[in-house]
Design goal:
Number of helices: 9
Structural class: alpha/beta
Strand content: 25-35%
CATH topology of the largest domain: Rossmann fold
Strand order of the largest sheet: 10-9-8-11-12-13-14
Shape: globular
Number of strands: 14
Order of helices and strands: EHEEEHEHEHEHEHEEEHEHEEH
Largest sheet: 7 strands, mixed
CATH class of the largest domain: Alpha Beta
């Protein structure tokens, strides 16, 4: 167990989430001052001493109605560096949603590897560790950072939610593309343990080139089963709609979907208009945008991810 006192901070846009994390850790959320200037520049400072403290900053890096993803990233980096400047013994960024994680490799000539560049920014701000919830590619995340990383997967969270269904119906877990097979396998194993019966998995073929997505065949048996499609995030919802149609065409009797991060870009109108999906479950790492129509919210269940984050912080404290 770390001997240093714990200090937990957050920034505007993530304060409500961070307060729930703080409540589970039984610590107060530390005070800060945030100031935005007329020219768009910004200042942040802690309003308490941090010298010798084990500091954690909880902040999700997704755009909202008032701040872009780049605004949030810069503000987090500024606070991390400020805390290091003022003598924190260790500074940990706790990122319920990590931006730019999808661009983790080069797919065409002269491509950037943006996740690695973001990692370098965290290191320049003297972050000692980065804790992130359900990143796009765990191996790429771990390899991008030179500072210590801790990845929180959401398999057990969704397994708990779908356990009753898996005990009463024949379920198959589906990845919307081959890249998500490892994530689906973690979920499948967790759900199988809770349900006490075998559960299969499958994936949907997906090829992308020149901005065009092709494929669509389901690899694995879904006929006559309830298909649960699992992904790390939902942006426009196009990938989920495509996968749901493929599962229906392959004979699935019902299709449900789950994702840790619900971006719902532009309100994801095609997703909520789709008749293929019987239900949708997301984590609360990102607040639901106002662009989602009220009628669509009846088809949406939001799960609390703060216990996962609080447990990760506690584990980081124990492990030093």
């Amino acid at each position: 167990m770390s001997a240093e006192p714990l200090a937990l901070f957050s920034l505007s846009g993530s304060v409500d989430y961070a307060k729930r994390v703080a409540a589970q850790l039984e610590v107060p959320l530390a005070p800060i001052e945030e100031r935005a200037f007329e020219d768009g520049e910004y200042k942040v400072r802690p309003l308490m001493p941090v010298e010798g403290a084990d500091v954690f900053v909880v902040h999700a890096l997704s755009s909202d109605a008032t701040q872009s993803v780049n605004d949030k990233l810069c503000r987090l980096l500024f606070l991390l560096a400020t805390l290091a400047d003022h003598g924190a013994s260790r500074v940990t960024a706790v990122v319920p949603y990590l931006c730019y994680a999808r661009k983790d490799r080069r797919t065409q000539p002269y491509d950037p590897v943006t996740q690695r560049y973001v990692a370098a920014l965290f290191e320049a701000a003297r972050a000692d560790r980065v804790i992130a919830l359900e990143v796009h590619n765990t191996a790429a995340f771990e390899n991008a950072f030179r500072c210590a990383t801790f990845h929180i997967d959401s398999a057990e969270l969704f397994a708990e939610h779908f356990a009753d269904l898996a005990r009463t119906e024949k379920v198959v877990i589906v990845s919307p593309d081959a890249g998500g097979v490892k994530r689906v396998e973690l979920f499948r194993r967790a759900l199988e343990r809770r349900a006490g019966q075998p559960i299969d998995n499958a994936f949907v073929e997906k090829y992308r080139g020149g901005g065009v997505v092709t494929g669509g065949a389901v690899v694995g048996a879904v006929e006559g089963r309830t298909a649960v499609i699992l992904d790390d995030l939902i942006a426009t919802g196009g990938t989920l709609v495509r996968a749901a149609k493929a599962c229906r065409a392959a004979g699935a009797k019902k299709v449900l979907a789950a994702a840790t991060h619900g971006l719902f870009t532009g309100g994801a109108p095609d997703l909520f208009a789709s008749g293929e999906l019987g239900g949708l479950v997301v984590g609360d790492s990102i607040p639901l945008p106002a662009t989602i129509p009220p009628s669509a919210r009846n088809r949406l269940r939001v799960l609390d991810t703060t216990p996962l984050v609080a447990a990760a912080i506690a584990a980081a404290r124990r492990n030093g």
